[in-house]
Amino acid sequence: MAVNKPRNRTLIFRLTQDEYDSLQAASSGARSLSDYARGKLLGSIELSPIDRQLFELKTKVERIAELLEKD
User: Domain residues of the chain, as ranges?
Assistant: First the structure.
């Protein structure tokens, strides 16, 4: 994801350790945890419902493929 504008705003929220672990596991393959969270948050706002469902399905399939490769 190319950054055209500097990111100079911060959003802070707290997670449980389990929530953090889940987020970190889901973000494997992303450039960073922040990039993944930003993409999920902004992507869910910008996408139509069908595109959001397709994106979620694609993400889940990729995650399953990664888990299968580890075995």
Answer: 18-70
What pTM did the predictor assign? 0.52
Transcribe the chain into DSSP letters. ---SS-----------HHHHHHHHHHTTTSS-HHHHHHHHHHHHHHS-HHHHHHHHHHHHHHHHHHHHHH-
In tens, the pLDDT along 35-62 reads 888 888 887 666 677 877 888 898 899 9
The Cα–Cα gap between 52 and 33 comes to 20
Backbone phi and psi for residue 28, each to the nearest 5 degrees, phi listed first: -60, 135
